[in-house]
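Two proteins were folded this term; both appear here.
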Amino acid sequence: MNNSTKPAIIVTDAPIFNGLTADGFRVLVYADRVNYIARLADDRAALLLIDGARDDWALWCSTPKSSPATRRIPIIVVADDLDAVTARGHGADVVIKPADLRSALPDLLRERARVMTDATSNALRDQCAEAPPPDVLEAVRLFNTGEYYAQHDLFEALWVAEDRPVRDLYRAVLQVGVAYYQVTRGNYRGAHKMLLRSVQWLDLLPDVCQQIDVAMLKADSAVVRAALDRVLAGEAASVDAALLKPVRLLTT
Protein backbone atom coordinates (compact mmCIF):
# COMPACT_ATOMS: atom_id res chain seq x y z
CA MET A 1 0.00 0.00 0.00
CA ASN A 2 1.53 3.33 -1.01
CA ASN A 3 1.27 6.30 1.29
CA SER A 4 -1.47 8.03 -0.70
CA THR A 5 -3.82 5.07 -0.26
CA LYS A 6 -3.29 4.61 3.47
CA PRO A 7 -6.11 5.62 5.81
CA ALA A 8 -5.42 8.78 7.78
CA ILE A 9 -5.23 9.82 11.39
CA ILE A 10 -6.36 13.43 11.50
CA VAL A 11 -4.92 15.61 14.26
CA THR A 12 -5.62 19.20 15.16
CA ASP A 13 -2.68 21.56 15.04
CA ALA A 14 -1.17 21.24 18.52
CA PRO A 15 2.26 20.52 20.06
CA ILE A 16 0.94 17.36 21.75
CA PHE A 17 0.69 15.73 18.31
CA ASN A 18 4.13 16.76 17.01
CA GLY A 19 6.01 13.81 15.57
CA LEU A 20 3.08 11.42 15.95
CA THR A 21 3.34 8.36 13.71
CA ALA A 22 1.51 5.05 13.35
CA ASP A 23 2.27 2.04 11.16
CA GLY A 24 -0.10 1.75 8.22
CA PHE A 25 -1.53 5.26 8.61
CA ARG A 26 -0.84 8.75 7.36
CA VAL A 27 -0.94 11.50 9.99
CA LEU A 28 -2.49 14.69 8.63
CA VAL A 29 -2.60 17.97 10.52
CA TYR A 30 -5.68 20.17 10.19
CA ALA A 31 -5.05 23.77 11.19
CA ASP A 32 -8.66 24.88 10.72
CA ARG A 33 -12.15 23.62 9.92
CA VAL A 34 -12.38 25.08 6.40
CA ASN A 35 -14.14 22.46 4.21
CA TYR A 36 -13.85 20.18 7.23
CA ILE A 37 -16.39 17.52 6.22
CA ALA A 38 -15.16 17.25 2.63
CA ARG A 39 -11.53 17.03 3.72
CA LEU A 40 -12.27 14.25 6.19
CA ALA A 41 -14.11 12.29 3.52
CA ASP A 42 -11.48 12.77 0.83
CA ASP A 43 -8.57 12.05 3.20
CA ARG A 44 -10.08 8.69 4.22
CA ALA A 45 -10.03 9.67 7.88
CA ALA A 46 -9.93 6.58 10.08
CA LEU A 47 -9.52 8.37 13.41
CA LEU A 48 -9.67 11.97 14.60
CA LEU A 49 -7.49 13.24 17.46
CA ILE A 50 -8.55 16.57 18.94
CA ASP A 51 -6.64 18.76 21.36
CA GLY A 52 -9.08 19.23 24.23
CA ALA A 53 -7.28 22.38 25.35
CA ARG A 54 -8.62 24.26 22.33
CA ASP A 55 -11.43 26.72 22.96
CA ASP A 56 -13.27 25.24 19.98
CA TRP A 57 -12.66 21.54 20.71
CA ALA A 58 -16.42 20.87 20.91
CA LEU A 59 -16.96 22.10 17.34
CA TRP A 60 -14.15 19.87 16.10
CA CYS A 61 -16.08 16.97 17.65
CA SER A 62 -19.66 17.83 16.81
CA THR A 63 -19.19 18.86 13.17
CA PRO A 64 -18.15 15.41 11.85
CA LYS A 65 -20.92 13.74 13.84
CA SER A 66 -23.48 16.00 12.16
CA SER A 67 -22.87 14.61 8.66
CA PRO A 68 -23.64 11.11 7.30
CA ALA A 69 -20.40 11.43 5.32
CA THR A 70 -18.23 11.51 8.46
CA ARG A 71 -20.28 10.55 11.51
CA ARG A 72 -18.72 7.06 11.68
CA ILE A 73 -15.20 8.44 12.18
CA PRO A 74 -14.10 7.74 15.77
CA ILE A 75 -13.12 10.84 17.70
CA ILE A 76 -10.56 10.90 20.51
CA VAL A 77 -10.18 14.03 22.63
CA VAL A 78 -6.79 14.45 24.27
CA ALA A 79 -7.01 16.55 27.43
CA ASP A 80 -5.94 16.59 31.08
CA ASP A 81 -9.03 18.22 32.54
CA LEU A 82 -12.08 17.27 30.50
CA ASP A 83 -15.02 15.29 31.76
CA ALA A 84 -15.66 12.24 29.57
CA VAL A 85 -19.43 12.65 29.80
CA THR A 86 -19.16 16.24 28.59
CA ALA A 87 -16.90 15.20 25.72
CA ARG A 88 -19.23 12.40 24.66
CA GLY A 89 -22.09 14.88 24.67
CA HIS A 90 -20.28 16.73 21.87
CA GLY A 91 -19.53 13.59 19.87
CA ALA A 92 -16.25 12.31 21.31
CA ASP A 93 -15.87 8.55 21.66
CA VAL A 94 -12.92 8.54 24.07
CA VAL A 95 -11.04 11.02 26.27
CA ILE A 96 -7.41 10.32 27.16
CA LYS A 97 -4.66 12.34 28.80
CA PRO A 98 -1.79 13.74 26.71
CA ALA A 99 0.74 11.75 28.73
CA ASP A 100 -1.03 8.52 27.74
CA LEU A 101 -1.50 9.27 24.03
CA ARG A 102 1.49 7.54 22.50
CA SER A 103 1.30 4.42 24.64
CA ALA A 104 -2.47 4.12 24.10
CA LEU A 105 -2.48 4.88 20.38
CA PRO A 106 -1.78 1.32 19.09
CA ASP A 107 -4.73 -0.04 21.10
CA LEU A 108 -6.95 2.86 20.05
CA LEU A 109 -6.16 2.23 16.41
CA ARG A 110 -6.75 -1.50 16.71
CA GLU A 111 -10.04 -1.07 18.59
CA ARG A 112 -11.41 2.16 17.14
CA ALA A 113 -9.92 3.10 13.77
CA ARG A 114 -12.36 2.93 10.91
CA VAL A 115 -10.46 0.62 8.59
CA MET A 116 -11.30 -2.56 6.75
CA THR A 117 -9.83 -5.71 8.24
CA ASP A 118 -7.73 -8.02 6.08
CA ALA A 119 -10.43 -10.70 6.30
CA THR A 120 -13.11 -8.30 5.11
CA SER A 121 -10.87 -6.94 2.36
CA ASN A 122 -10.13 -10.44 1.08
CA ALA A 123 -13.81 -11.39 1.19
CA LEU A 124 -14.76 -8.22 -0.67
CA ARG A 125 -12.14 -8.91 -3.35
CA ASP A 126 -13.53 -12.39 -3.89
CA GLN A 127 -17.13 -11.15 -4.02
CA CYS A 128 -16.24 -8.39 -6.44
CA ALA A 129 -14.83 -11.04 -8.77
CA GLU A 130 -18.27 -12.67 -9.00
CA ALA A 131 -20.53 -12.06 -11.96
CA PRO A 132 -23.16 -9.41 -11.22
CA PRO A 133 -26.58 -10.77 -10.27
CA PRO A 134 -29.36 -9.99 -12.76
CA ASP A 135 -30.84 -7.34 -10.49
CA VAL A 136 -27.52 -5.52 -10.39
CA LEU A 137 -27.48 -5.39 -14.18
CA GLU A 138 -31.06 -4.09 -14.17
CA ALA A 139 -30.21 -1.45 -11.55
CA VAL A 140 -27.26 -0.32 -13.66
CA ARG A 141 -29.54 -0.13 -16.70
CA LEU A 142 -31.94 2.07 -14.77
CA PHE A 143 -29.08 4.30 -13.64
CA ASN A 144 -27.77 4.61 -17.19
CA THR A 145 -31.16 5.56 -18.61
CA GLY A 146 -31.55 8.33 -16.06
CA GLU A 147 -34.11 6.48 -13.96
CA TYR A 148 -32.27 7.44 -10.81
CA TYR A 149 -35.21 7.05 -8.46
CA ALA A 150 -35.90 3.51 -9.66
CA GLN A 151 -32.24 2.52 -9.50
CA HIS A 152 -32.21 3.62 -5.88
CA ASP A 153 -35.08 1.33 -4.98
CA LEU A 154 -33.52 -1.68 -6.69
CA PHE A 155 -30.00 -1.13 -5.35
CA GLU A 156 -31.44 -0.54 -1.88
CA ALA A 157 -33.29 -3.86 -2.07
CA LEU A 158 -30.04 -5.54 -3.10
CA TRP A 159 -28.20 -3.87 -0.21
CA VAL A 160 -30.81 -4.97 2.32
CA ALA A 161 -30.82 -8.57 1.04
CA GLU A 162 -27.02 -8.90 0.95
CA ASP A 163 -25.13 -9.42 4.22
CA ARG A 164 -21.64 -9.74 2.74
CA PRO A 165 -19.16 -6.85 2.29
CA VAL A 166 -20.09 -6.48 -1.40
CA ARG A 167 -23.31 -4.82 -0.22
CA ASP A 168 -21.29 -1.61 0.02
CA LEU A 169 -21.04 -1.63 -3.79
CA TYR A 170 -24.81 -1.33 -4.02
CA ARG A 171 -24.92 1.41 -1.41
CA ALA A 172 -22.19 3.39 -3.15
CA VAL A 173 -23.76 3.29 -6.61
CA LEU A 174 -27.26 4.09 -5.37
CA GLN A 175 -25.95 7.13 -3.50
CA VAL A 176 -24.24 8.47 -6.61
CA GLY A 177 -27.50 7.88 -8.48
CA VAL A 178 -29.49 9.76 -5.84
CA ALA A 179 -27.03 12.65 -6.13
CA TYR A 180 -27.49 12.72 -9.89
CA TYR A 181 -31.25 12.69 -9.38
CA GLN A 182 -30.93 15.74 -7.14
CA VAL A 183 -28.82 17.46 -9.78
CA THR A 184 -31.59 16.97 -12.33
CA ARG A 185 -34.02 18.56 -9.86
CA GLY A 186 -31.75 21.52 -9.19
CA ASN A 187 -31.18 20.51 -5.58
CA TYR A 188 -27.46 21.14 -5.75
CA ARG A 189 -26.84 21.27 -2.01
CA GLY A 190 -28.57 17.93 -1.52
CA ALA A 191 -26.63 16.43 -4.43
CA HIS A 192 -23.35 17.63 -2.99
CA LYS A 193 -24.12 16.12 0.41
CA MET A 194 -25.00 12.79 -1.17
CA LEU A 195 -21.81 12.66 -3.24
CA LEU A 196 -19.78 13.35 -0.10
CA ARG A 197 -21.67 10.55 1.61
CA SER A 198 -20.82 8.12 -1.20
CA VAL A 199 -17.06 8.66 -0.87
CA GLN A 200 -16.76 6.49 2.26
CA TRP A 201 -18.23 3.49 0.42
CA LEU A 202 -16.57 4.00 -2.96
CA ASP A 203 -13.16 4.19 -1.31
CA LEU A 204 -13.60 0.72 0.18
CA LEU A 205 -14.10 -0.93 -3.19
CA PRO A 206 -11.63 -2.37 -5.72
CA ASP A 207 -11.39 -0.56 -9.05
CA VAL A 208 -13.74 -3.15 -10.57
CA CYS A 209 -16.48 -4.89 -8.60
CA GLN A 210 -19.02 -7.27 -10.13
CA GLN A 211 -18.04 -5.84 -13.53
CA ILE A 212 -18.83 -2.28 -12.44
CA ASP A 213 -16.01 0.13 -13.24
CA VAL A 214 -15.75 1.62 -9.76
CA ALA A 215 -12.65 3.65 -10.60
CA MET A 216 -14.49 5.43 -13.41
CA LEU A 217 -17.56 6.00 -11.24
CA LYS A 218 -15.35 7.60 -8.59
CA ALA A 219 -13.69 9.83 -11.17
CA ASP A 220 -16.97 10.79 -12.85
CA SER A 221 -18.72 11.58 -9.57
CA ALA A 222 -15.73 13.66 -8.47
CA VAL A 223 -16.14 15.79 -11.61
CA VAL A 224 -19.80 16.33 -10.75
CA ARG A 225 -18.90 17.23 -7.18
CA ALA A 226 -16.36 19.78 -8.40
CA ALA A 227 -19.06 21.33 -10.58
CA LEU A 228 -21.38 21.45 -7.57
CA ASP A 229 -18.62 23.13 -5.56
CA ARG A 230 -18.52 25.90 -8.15
CA VAL A 231 -22.29 26.35 -8.06
CA LEU A 232 -22.43 26.43 -4.27
CA ALA A 233 -19.58 28.95 -4.22
CA GLY A 234 -21.51 31.18 -6.60
CA GLU A 235 -19.01 30.67 -9.42
CA ALA A 236 -21.50 28.95 -11.75
CA ALA A 237 -25.25 28.99 -12.24
CA SER A 238 -25.88 25.32 -12.84
CA VAL A 239 -24.38 21.88 -13.42
CA ASP A 240 -24.19 20.64 -16.99
CA ALA A 241 -26.32 17.48 -17.23
CA ALA A 242 -23.74 16.07 -19.65
CA LEU A 243 -21.50 15.50 -16.63
CA LEU A 244 -23.87 12.81 -15.33
CA LYS A 245 -22.07 9.85 -16.89
CA PRO A 246 -23.41 6.28 -16.97
CA VAL A 247 -22.01 3.41 -14.94
CA ARG A 248 -19.62 1.44 -17.12
CA LEU A 249 -19.67 -2.35 -17.10
CA LEU A 250 -16.42 -4.17 -17.90
CA THR A 251 -16.94 -7.61 -19.39
CA THR A 252 -14.37 -10.12 -20.52
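Next, the second protein.
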Amino acid sequence: MRHSLLPAVWIALNACGQVPAETYTYKTARSCTLQADVHRLPGETPRPAILWLHGGALIFGHRGNLGAEQRQRYLREGFTVVSIDYRLAPETKLAGILEDLDDAWRWLRAQGPRLFRIDPDRIAVVGHSAGGYLTLTCGHRLRPRPAALVSFYGYGDIAGDWYSRPDPFYSRQPAVSKEEAWQTVGREPLSGTPAPNQRFRFYLYCRQQGIWPNEVAGHDPRSEPRAFDPLCPVRNVTAAWPPTLLLHGDQDTDVPFEQSEQMAREFKRHGVEHELIRIPGGPHGFDRKLSDPVVAEAFERVIRFLKERLIPPAPPREGLGLPGAR
Protein backbone atom coordinates (compact mmCIF):
# COMPACT_ATOMS: atom_id res chain seq x y z
CA MET A 1 0.00 0.00 0.00
CA ARG A 2 1.43 3.38 -1.01
CA HIS A 3 0.83 6.43 1.17
CA SER A 4 0.17 9.82 -0.40
CA LEU A 5 -0.42 11.81 2.80
CA LEU A 6 2.15 14.25 4.14
CA PRO A 7 4.10 12.87 7.11
CA ALA A 8 2.61 15.34 9.63
CA VAL A 9 -0.93 14.50 8.53
CA TRP A 10 -0.12 10.79 8.61
CA ILE A 11 1.15 11.02 12.20
CA ALA A 12 -1.92 12.99 13.31
CA LEU A 13 -4.31 10.45 11.78
CA ASN A 14 -2.32 7.55 13.18
CA ALA A 15 -2.45 9.10 16.64
CA CYS A 16 -6.24 9.18 16.40
CA GLY A 17 -6.36 5.55 15.36
CA GLN A 18 -7.65 6.42 11.88
CA VAL A 19 -4.76 4.82 10.00
CA PRO A 20 -4.42 1.06 10.48
CA ALA A 21 -1.03 -0.56 10.72
CA GLU A 22 0.14 -2.69 7.85
CA THR A 23 -0.07 -6.26 9.16
CA TYR A 24 2.08 -9.08 7.83
CA THR A 25 2.46 -12.73 8.71
CA TYR A 26 6.12 -13.42 9.32
CA LYS A 27 5.79 -17.06 10.33
CA THR A 28 3.36 -19.93 10.87
CA ALA A 29 4.25 -22.45 13.57
CA ARG A 30 1.92 -25.42 13.49
CA SER A 31 -1.54 -23.87 13.92
CA CYS A 32 -0.21 -20.55 15.21
CA THR A 33 0.06 -17.57 12.86
CA LEU A 34 2.62 -15.01 13.97
CA GLN A 35 2.07 -11.45 12.79
CA ALA A 36 3.85 -8.11 12.70
CA ASP A 37 2.27 -4.65 12.67
CA VAL A 38 4.21 -2.04 10.73
CA HIS A 39 3.74 1.65 11.56
CA ARG A 40 5.50 3.97 9.13
CA LEU A 41 5.52 7.35 7.49
CA PRO A 42 4.64 7.70 3.81
CA GLY A 43 7.40 7.80 1.25
CA GLU A 44 9.87 5.55 -0.53
CA THR A 45 13.06 6.64 1.24
CA PRO A 46 14.50 3.75 3.27
CA ARG A 47 14.13 4.50 6.97
CA PRO A 48 15.70 3.15 10.14
CA ALA A 49 13.49 0.71 12.02
CA ILE A 50 12.60 -0.32 15.55
CA LEU A 51 11.72 -3.94 16.21
CA TRP A 52 9.37 -3.62 19.21
CA LEU A 53 8.80 -6.53 21.62
CA HIS A 54 5.86 -6.59 24.02
CA GLY A 55 5.98 -7.68 27.65
CA GLY A 56 3.76 -10.01 29.63
CA ALA A 57 6.16 -12.46 31.31
CA LEU A 58 6.26 -14.43 28.03
CA ILE A 59 2.82 -15.72 29.10
CA PHE A 60 0.48 -12.97 27.85
CA GLY A 61 0.65 -9.70 25.90
CA HIS A 62 0.12 -8.49 22.36
CA ARG A 63 1.95 -6.66 19.58
CA GLY A 64 -0.58 -3.83 19.93
CA ASN A 65 0.48 -2.99 23.49
CA LEU A 66 2.91 -0.25 22.46
CA GLY A 67 1.53 3.00 23.83
CA ALA A 68 0.23 5.42 21.20
CA GLU A 69 2.25 8.35 22.53
CA GLN A 70 5.52 6.47 22.31
CA ARG A 71 4.66 5.05 18.91
CA GLN A 72 3.89 8.51 17.53
CA ARG A 73 7.13 9.89 18.90
CA TYR A 74 9.12 7.16 17.16
CA LEU A 75 7.31 7.94 13.92
CA ARG A 76 7.84 11.68 14.27
CA GLU A 77 11.57 11.12 14.68
CA GLY A 78 11.70 9.17 11.41
CA PHE A 79 11.62 5.55 12.57
CA THR A 80 9.49 2.78 11.18
CA VAL A 81 8.10 0.68 14.03
CA VAL A 82 7.62 -3.07 13.56
CA SER A 83 5.79 -4.68 16.48
CA ILE A 84 5.63 -8.47 16.54
CA ASP A 85 3.80 -11.24 18.32
CA TYR A 86 5.59 -14.39 19.40
CA ARG A 87 4.32 -17.67 20.77
CA LEU A 88 3.54 -17.67 24.47
CA ALA A 89 4.38 -19.94 27.39
CA PRO A 90 3.59 -22.42 28.83
CA GLU A 91 2.12 -23.85 25.63
CA THR A 92 5.40 -23.00 23.88
CA LYS A 93 8.59 -23.21 25.88
CA LEU A 94 11.25 -20.52 25.80
CA ALA A 95 13.37 -22.25 23.16
CA GLY A 96 10.45 -21.95 20.73
CA ILE A 97 9.83 -18.32 21.66
CA LEU A 98 13.46 -17.49 20.94
CA GLU A 99 13.17 -19.29 17.59
CA ASP A 100 10.28 -16.94 16.76
CA LEU A 101 12.49 -13.97 17.55
CA ASP A 102 15.26 -15.34 15.33
CA ASP A 103 12.79 -15.91 12.48
CA ALA A 104 11.27 -12.44 12.89
CA TRP A 105 14.74 -10.91 12.62
CA ARG A 106 15.54 -12.82 9.44
CA TRP A 107 12.16 -11.89 7.94
CA LEU A 108 12.54 -8.22 8.89
CA ARG A 109 15.97 -7.92 7.30
CA ALA A 110 15.10 -9.92 4.18
CA GLN A 111 11.58 -8.64 3.46
CA GLY A 112 11.44 -5.28 5.21
CA PRO A 113 13.35 -3.32 2.55
CA ARG A 114 10.93 -4.46 -0.14
CA LEU A 115 7.66 -4.50 1.81
CA PHE A 116 7.95 -1.31 3.85
CA ARG A 117 11.18 0.41 2.86
CA ILE A 118 13.46 -0.03 5.87
CA ASP A 119 17.23 -0.01 5.92
CA PRO A 120 18.23 -3.51 7.13
CA ASP A 121 21.49 -2.21 8.58
CA ARG A 122 19.77 0.40 10.74
CA ILE A 123 17.50 -1.61 13.03
CA ALA A 124 17.29 -1.30 16.81
CA VAL A 125 15.40 -3.63 19.13
CA VAL A 126 13.26 -2.10 21.89
CA GLY A 127 11.36 -4.13 24.48
CA HIS A 128 9.55 -3.77 27.79
CA SER A 129 9.69 -6.20 30.74
CA ALA A 130 9.70 -9.71 29.19
CA GLY A 131 10.16 -7.86 25.91
CA GLY A 132 13.18 -6.23 27.54
CA TYR A 133 14.50 -9.69 28.36
CA LEU A 134 14.00 -10.75 24.73
CA THR A 135 15.71 -7.53 23.64
CA LEU A 136 18.75 -8.43 25.72
CA THR A 137 18.86 -11.92 24.22
CA CYS A 138 19.24 -10.21 20.83
CA GLY A 139 22.64 -8.98 21.95
CA HIS A 140 24.11 -12.46 21.71
CA ARG A 141 21.64 -14.42 19.54
CA LEU A 142 20.99 -12.37 16.42
CA ARG A 143 23.28 -12.21 13.40
CA PRO A 144 24.05 -9.70 12.15
CA ARG A 145 23.65 -7.95 15.46
CA PRO A 146 21.16 -5.08 15.83
CA ALA A 147 22.52 -1.56 15.66
CA ALA A 148 21.28 -0.84 19.21
CA LEU A 149 19.20 -2.27 22.05
CA VAL A 150 16.84 -0.52 24.48
CA SER A 151 15.55 -2.51 27.46
CA PHE A 152 12.78 -1.04 29.60
CA TYR A 153 12.85 -2.86 32.99
CA GLY A 154 14.14 -6.04 31.38
CA TYR A 155 16.22 -8.80 32.94
CA GLY A 156 19.27 -10.83 32.09
CA ASP A 157 19.07 -13.70 34.59
CA ILE A 158 16.00 -15.92 34.45
CA ALA A 159 17.41 -18.57 36.78
CA GLY A 160 18.08 -16.37 39.82
CA ASP A 161 16.23 -16.51 43.13
CA TRP A 162 13.99 -13.60 42.12
CA TYR A 163 12.30 -15.87 39.56
CA SER A 164 13.03 -19.35 40.95
CA ARG A 165 11.85 -18.77 44.55
CA PRO A 166 8.44 -17.68 45.86
CA ASP A 167 8.25 -13.91 45.41
CA PRO A 168 7.55 -11.88 48.59
CA PHE A 169 5.49 -9.22 46.79
CA TYR A 170 3.26 -11.61 44.87
CA SER A 171 2.98 -13.99 47.83
CA ARG A 172 1.11 -11.27 49.76
CA GLN A 173 -1.74 -11.54 47.26
CA PRO A 174 -4.47 -14.21 47.59
CA ALA A 175 -3.02 -17.56 46.60
CA VAL A 176 -3.79 -18.96 43.15
CA SER A 177 -4.32 -22.71 43.19
CA LYS A 178 -2.65 -25.02 40.73
CA GLU A 179 -6.06 -26.04 39.38
CA GLU A 180 -7.13 -22.43 38.76
CA ALA A 181 -3.78 -21.52 37.20
CA TRP A 182 -3.83 -24.34 34.65
CA GLN A 183 -7.43 -23.60 33.71
CA THR A 184 -6.30 -20.22 32.32
CA VAL A 185 -3.92 -21.71 29.76
CA GLY A 186 -4.28 -24.40 27.11
CA ARG A 187 -2.43 -26.98 25.07
CA GLU A 188 -2.24 -25.50 21.57
CA PRO A 189 0.32 -22.81 20.70
CA LEU A 190 -0.99 -19.26 20.66
CA SER A 191 0.26 -15.68 20.46
CA GLY A 192 -1.01 -12.18 20.99
CA THR A 193 -3.42 -12.36 23.92
CA PRO A 194 -5.31 -9.19 24.81
CA ALA A 195 -4.62 -7.51 28.13
CA PRO A 196 -5.87 -7.61 30.80
CA ASN A 197 -6.26 -11.35 30.46
CA GLN A 198 -6.96 -14.30 32.73
CA ARG A 199 -3.57 -15.74 31.80
CA PHE A 200 -2.09 -13.33 34.37
CA ARG A 201 -3.43 -15.76 36.97
CA PHE A 202 -1.03 -18.38 35.66
CA TYR A 203 1.83 -15.90 35.98
CA LEU A 204 0.77 -15.02 39.53
CA TYR A 205 0.72 -18.72 40.42
CA CYS A 206 4.24 -19.17 39.00
CA ARG A 207 5.60 -16.23 41.00
CA GLN A 208 3.91 -17.38 44.20
CA GLN A 209 5.38 -20.87 43.79
CA GLY A 210 8.77 -19.77 42.42
CA ILE A 211 8.40 -21.94 39.32
CA TRP A 212 8.41 -19.44 36.44
CA PRO A 213 11.68 -20.80 34.97
CA ASN A 214 10.35 -24.36 35.20
CA GLU A 215 7.07 -23.63 33.41
CA VAL A 216 8.40 -21.14 30.86
CA ALA A 217 11.84 -22.54 30.07
CA GLY A 218 11.00 -26.16 30.79
CA HIS A 219 14.05 -26.60 33.04
CA ASP A 220 14.63 -26.53 36.80
CA PRO A 221 17.35 -24.03 37.79
CA ARG A 222 18.35 -26.14 40.77
CA SER A 223 18.74 -29.49 39.03
CA GLU A 224 19.67 -28.20 35.54
CA PRO A 225 21.65 -24.99 36.10
CA ARG A 226 23.69 -25.31 32.89
CA ALA A 227 20.51 -25.51 30.79
CA PHE A 228 20.09 -21.78 31.43
CA ASP A 229 23.47 -20.76 30.04
CA PRO A 230 22.15 -19.92 26.53
CA LEU A 231 18.94 -18.45 27.98
CA CYS A 232 20.46 -15.82 30.28
CA PRO A 233 21.86 -12.72 28.53
CA VAL A 234 23.98 -11.85 31.56
CA ARG A 235 25.97 -15.05 30.99
CA ASN A 236 26.64 -14.23 27.34
CA VAL A 237 27.99 -10.66 27.27
CA THR A 238 31.02 -10.13 25.04
CA ALA A 239 32.82 -7.11 23.61
CA ALA A 240 30.80 -7.58 20.40
CA TRP A 241 27.53 -6.71 22.15
CA PRO A 242 25.56 -3.83 20.53
CA PRO A 243 25.26 -0.44 22.26
CA THR A 244 22.59 -0.85 24.94
CA LEU A 245 20.39 1.51 26.92
CA LEU A 246 18.80 0.17 30.13
CA LEU A 247 15.90 1.92 31.88
CA HIS A 248 14.56 0.71 35.22
CA GLY A 249 12.62 2.03 38.18
CA ASP A 250 14.27 1.43 41.54
CA GLN A 251 10.91 0.57 43.15
CA ASP A 252 9.98 -2.11 40.62
CA THR A 253 8.11 -4.89 42.46
CA ASP A 254 7.95 -7.20 39.44
CA VAL A 255 11.48 -7.12 37.98
CA PRO A 256 14.11 -6.07 40.53
CA PHE A 257 16.16 -3.00 39.64
CA GLU A 258 19.20 -5.15 40.37
CA GLN A 259 18.57 -7.03 37.14
CA SER A 260 19.55 -3.97 35.10
CA GLU A 261 22.41 -3.19 37.47
CA GLN A 262 23.75 -6.70 36.92
CA MET A 263 23.65 -6.26 33.14
CA ALA A 264 25.38 -2.87 33.43
CA ARG A 265 28.20 -4.42 35.44
CA GLU A 266 28.75 -7.07 32.78
CA PHE A 267 28.71 -4.44 30.04
CA LYS A 268 31.34 -2.42 31.89
CA ARG A 269 33.48 -5.51 32.45
CA HIS A 270 33.49 -6.29 28.72
CA GLY A 271 33.82 -2.71 27.47
CA VAL A 272 30.33 -2.57 25.94
CA GLU A 273 28.90 0.88 25.16
CA HIS A 274 25.93 1.23 27.52
CA GLU A 275 23.98 3.46 29.87
CA LEU A 276 21.67 2.65 32.79
CA ILE A 277 18.94 5.18 33.52
CA ARG A 278 17.58 4.83 37.04
CA ILE A 279 14.06 6.15 37.64
CA PRO A 280 13.91 7.15 41.35
CA GLY A 281 10.75 5.70 42.88
CA GLY A 282 9.80 4.26 39.50
CA PRO A 283 7.48 1.22 39.49
CA HIS A 284 7.20 -1.49 36.88
CA GLY A 285 5.79 0.09 33.73
CA PHE A 286 6.88 3.59 34.79
CA ASP A 287 6.95 4.71 31.14
CA ARG A 288 3.17 4.62 30.86
CA LYS A 289 3.23 8.02 32.57
CA LEU A 290 5.07 10.23 30.08
CA SER A 291 3.49 13.29 31.71
CA ASP A 292 5.93 12.81 34.60
CA PRO A 293 8.92 15.11 33.91
CA VAL A 294 11.43 12.47 35.04
CA VAL A 295 9.88 9.85 32.77
CA ALA A 296 9.61 12.32 29.90
CA GLU A 297 13.32 13.15 30.17
CA ALA A 298 14.17 9.44 30.25
CA PHE A 299 12.19 8.88 27.06
CA GLU A 300 13.96 11.83 25.45
CA ARG A 301 17.20 10.01 26.22
CA VAL A 302 15.81 6.95 24.44
CA ILE A 303 15.12 9.06 21.37
CA ARG A 304 18.59 10.59 21.42
CA PHE A 305 20.22 7.20 21.90
CA LEU A 306 18.36 5.74 18.92
CA LYS A 307 18.96 8.72 16.66
CA GLU A 308 22.68 8.78 17.47
CA ARG A 309 23.02 5.15 16.36
CA LEU A 310 20.46 4.87 13.56
CA ILE A 311 20.27 8.28 11.89
CA PRO A 312 23.59 9.64 10.59
CA PRO A 313 24.05 13.42 10.77
CA ALA A 314 23.38 15.29 7.58
CA PRO A 315 26.54 16.38 5.73
CA PRO A 316 27.29 20.12 5.88
CA ARG A 317 25.82 22.08 3.01
CA GLU A 318 28.14 24.11 0.80
CA GLY A 319 27.98 27.88 0.66
CA LEU A 320 26.63 28.47 4.18
CA GLY A 321 29.78 29.99 5.65
CA LEU A 322 30.80 26.73 7.31
CA PRO A 323 34.52 25.97 7.75
CA GLY A 324 35.90 24.78 4.45
CA ALA A 325 32.88 25.96 2.43
CA ARG A 326 33.56 27.76 -0.84
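Residues 1-5, 321-326 have pLDDT under 50 and may be disordered. Residues 73 and 297 are 13 Å apart (CA to CA). These notes refer to the second protein only.
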